[in-house]
Model the fold of this input.
Amino acid sequence: MLRSLRNLRRLMAIARSFARYDALFLLDIFPAGAAGARIARTLWRPRPDVKGLRPGQRLALALTALGPSFIKFGQALSIRADLLGEQVAADLTSLQDRLPPFPFAEAEAAIESDFGVPLSSLYKSFDETAVAAASIAQVHFAVDTQDREVAVKVLRPGVKAAFARDIDVLLWLAELAEYHEPRLQRLKPVEVVHTFAESVRIEMDLRFEAAAAQEMAENFAGDPTFKIPGVDWQRTSERVLTLERVSGARVDDRVAVAALGIDSVAVVRTAAEVFFKMVFRHGFFHADMHPGNLFVAENGVLIGMDFGIMGRVDAATQKILGEMLLGFLTRDYRRVAEVHIRAGYVPADKSVDAFAQACRSIAEPILGKPIAEISIARLLGQLFQITETFEMQTQPQLLLLQKSMLLAEGVGRTLAPQVNMWEMAQPMIETWMRERLGPEGQIADAVGTAMDTLQKLPHIIDRVDAVTADMARGGLRLHPDTARAIRGEEPGKNGRVPWMLWAPWVLAAALLAALMFR
Done:
């Protein structure tokens, strides 16, 4: 009850902002929301300056007025064309996570509180003016006591409490939507909010960001195409992150990139390669790679920044994505449809041919065109429009990847609108698919499966021991030789069959199966 009252009060502020910016169309999705929208329209009139703006532009303004939590949530919604429609989702991509900086005194207090020493003990000099300020934190340049130039990120005071309050409101609304409007359950609004909440929770502990930066740096160690600033762990805490200071041209600044003497098409090709390696080689990708987080160095190397929002893709999902993307790029729409059904994204009772036809209708308008003439938002919008027909389930674990693709496309469109960065990635995808789906990949999968089985067998045998004992205690007695056989023991002996006798045969059988059925 208290939760409902607390959230209703915050809901009034949300409704007022939406009404003032004429963005109440979101509440019209379900009957209870529509009734609330009518009340809000009666209480608050739209501002005169929003007249003539598109719905998505008005929504972006309303979310910005509500503060950091809703700015972040709006960015997350920018890939949900299934919920909002193509144009609204596209308009939300313009949301800028920029806020006025908080006072230097508060930053200094946070640093000294976390480390228990004066600021001067950590940094020889510290620029009091923030060079960047966002909803979560702001950044200052400094020089540490070893004369190294660094960038210091400091968490915004009170941000955790503010996000916790607003995420509870969003979750409450999502629960109400699922309960009162069952047709929305397919879109998994509660799961979407949970995914968003987990992402924000990680982003507000700067130690996690430091760990992510270091992991990505290790993934790209020795790779001349992508650089990640080094982490200064001695000056990093929950609220403070100190990184090596790097410099370069913003990736969307065509003039600055040209001044470095670097070909813009080469930069887009490098960006495509980096994105491919993150997703398909490492399974760990930067999920907020907007132009403000990506720079080009004098030697053409891309520099990544801000590792607060990251995503992971497991090996099974990598295969699914690889096949789907390759199917689209080669116009093999039946393959795309079969992959969707095999992965469980589309129910098995749906027609492969019908879904393949739908995929063709989505992809053909964009394939082969310069990137300036296509829109991933439009592609996703059309895909999600057909999902209800085929009862396709939303995949929340792929939302960050979709967002990352959208941002990467924006980089390509800005720098080299005459090329399609996804077609640039096609040779890499084809090579990767041969390695993963060819004979070598099948053998590797079989070996992995066999090794997993070997690791699990001791636990299985132990469970048999326990079950046998339970059965005996319950009155159902087994002959001693039968019990020993179940446990893998030879009659008349107390020990199990040695691992070295049967493990090689399990592994050999797995390899033989892979070769016979490839």
